[in-house]
Amino acid sequence: MSRTAKAVILARAVRRLSPRMAAYMARRVARNRLAVRFPDRYRARISAIEETLPRLGRPPADLPTGLVSMAEFYCAEYRDVMDGVLQGRVCLHGHEIDFGASDRVDWNRGVPEEGDHQMWRVKLAHMGFLCPMMLEGGPEHYAVVATLVAGARSGTDMTAPGAFNAYWFPYAASHRILSLGAGLMLARARGTLPPETDAAVADLLRYNVAFVLDNVEHELNNNHVERNLAALCLYFTYAESIPPAIAARLERDVAHLVGSTILEDGCQIERSPMYQGLSVASLAVLAETPFLSAALRARLSGRLDAARRAFAILCHPDGQVALFNDAWHDEVPHWTGPPAPEGRSLLPQGGYGRLSQGEDLCLMDAGPLGPSWNPGHGHADFLSLEITLGAERLIVDPGTSRYNTGADRARERSAAAHNGPCYEGIEPVEFTGCFKVGRMAEARLLDEGNLPLDTIGGTFRGTVGGAARMVRHYPGQGFLVADYWDSETPGAVSWLVPGSWQASTGPEDSILLHKNGSDARIVPLAGRFRAPAPQASSWACHYGRREAAHEIRLRGEAHTGGGQALLCWIGRTTPPDSACEDGAVLLDRLAALSESSR
Q1: Contact criterion met (CB below 8 Å) for 556 and 529
Q2: 131, 158, 213, 242: which could join 179 in a potential S-S bond, CB 3.0 to 4.6 Å?
Q3: Alpha carbon distance 598, 586 (integer Å)
Q4: Containing structural domain, residue 69
Q5: Domain termination site, one of 215, 248, 271
Q6: Cα 559 → chain centroid
Q7: Under a CB-based contact definition with an 8 Å cutoff, are residues 75 and 187 in contact?
Q8: Pfam families of this UniProt entry (predicted)?
Q9: Cβ atoms within 10 A of the Cβ of 62, count?
Q10: Phi, psi at 523, each rounded to 5°
Q11: What is the dihedral sign for C-alpha 129, 130, 134, 135?
């Protein structure tokens, strides 16, 4: 991409910022420069804030559920790696670095392959593994917690060049407050930590709270501010007191956050199933914050209930999240609450539809790229699907293997990498770098009034034409996918199937799939394969690595009413006898919807 094209994308992104976000972005740029130029003054600024803050008190005898859930959030992610940390081995995102000893951990350590977004280093800065070490470890773990805290205090400098994108990234500092704060409060309730470890963690928390108070990320909004505010509210909930000015500020900021980023159906506005899980944990803390007004806490409780329902809808039968937009597995705990209702579930504001029964599931993304002011976590996965049959993931999203700039990031955000009905060679969204977005686009979820029973659907209009999709569920058998394009530009769909499935060509122009005693098939009933056999490809369900996948490419055919159509059966059986007739009805509806949306 040329410098001119990048400049155009950047200009479009900047124009979408609210005046408030633009002002905070200017403040952030100034901070990054002035802290390096005047380090003593900046450190003195944070220390002065710290001196005004109360210290942490003791938790109540009846531990609030939000606090317990936050501690379990970090324990679930890190309990399997905490013993390695005793010897200085830190494994994050499946990538282990051996520092040789716990007192030699380098909190500024970069990973060369992560380029301009050092996710491993930021993840290290979360210090999330200290939570299970405090709650599930023994005396050796407690001693190492104190060692690691001392090393972080002495081995990092918020005024060093690049520090605000590393250990002193406000988002990372917020995770530190949440993980260490929840862990320390539960440990105090149990009376298990040695006094020196308790004091070291408490002092680090107080210093981090001072830093986050001065650096709430209003320039980014969204999940960043959510994490900032949840961290501050957790600390002051269990502090000996809270200054009235801070309480009033948090009341305003939390009210603005819930009103602008948690939609009525409970979806977090960035529309990532993974970040939805983070929102559930944050809202649980915010809803229990005693110094917030009763009216705001009631509002937070209502949104928390809705967010939990939305999270259940966005998880597969295995409890893992769908991978739409920026998302990967094991960043948030598996969903273990009440399951989503069987049948059809719609999230109208979030733009997601679900069909499910038992261990069969289809999820559709039919919403916007993300919030106009900061859509950086969005992918061009308009009308894309994920399908599970018999508790086995069959049709998958390409996922997110990295945030740093490069070919993988560009591909994983593109329409061509996803399975929505797209136009060959046409990208509806302008992406560059890690999170920059120029031209935007959005799909729209069809409401129940436009849908037959057991069906979900959506429409999309891009730069060269419109597309629409409906999916009908045949319980116990599979899913019929109908796609329609209203332009002459060739329409295409590419299904990704995990490489753990064995794939082969079958009779009557079908693809047969087998895994662990489960069988499935993909059969085009209208349209055709673009390649005679599945092609080698990849997908990412964990950050930092990709796994083998089969790519099955199809192309639409001329539709009797104009435009192009593709009708595809994805199921455990051969298509039902009525599939072609049912599909024709769906395609006619899609053509009519597309015509009315022009």
Answers
A1: no
A2: 131
A3: 19
A4: 59-215
A5: 215
A6: 37
A7: no
A8: Hepar_II_III_C
A9: 7
A10: -130, 115
A11: negative
Whole-angstrom Cα distance, residue 484 to residue 387? Answer: 20
- Helix (H, G, I), strand (E, B), or coil: what is residue 372? coil
Q: Are 270 and 358 in a shared domain?
A: no
Residue 319 Rama label (left phi>0; alpha psi -120 to 50; beta) = left
Q: Is the Cα dihedral 589, 594, 597, 598 positive or negative?
A: negative
**Tokens 């009708």 identify what position?**
567
Is residue 487 situated within a structural domain? yes
Instruction: Say if CB 164 and CB 105 are below 8 A apart.
Output: no
Last residue of a domain, one of 151, 181, 215: 215
Residue type, 184: L
- Name the nearest CA neighbour of 568 among 497, 463, 472, 428: 472
Please tell me whether residues 387 and 303 are part of one structural domain: no
Cα 558 to Cα 549: distance, rounded to the nearest angstrom: 29
Residues 6+ apart with CB under 8 A from 93: 119, 120, 123, 542, 543, 544
User: Which segments of the chain have a pLDDT < 70?
Assistant: none
Q: What's the token pair of residue 286?
A: 């915010």
Do 432 and 496 lie in one domain? The reply is yes
2 in any annotated domain: no
The total of structural domains in the chain comes to: 3
Residue 29 domain-assigned?
no
Instruction: Kindly state whether residues 259 and 400 are assigned to the same domain.
Output: no
What pLDDT sits at residue 341? 94
Question: Left if phi > 0, otherwise alpha if psi is -120 to 50, otherwise beta: which for 463?
Answer: alpha
Q: Is the domain of 490 the same as that of 365?
A: yes
**CATH code of residue 456:** 2.70.98.70
In a domain, 324, yes or no: no
pLDDT of residue 270: 98
Residue 264 one-letter amino acid? E
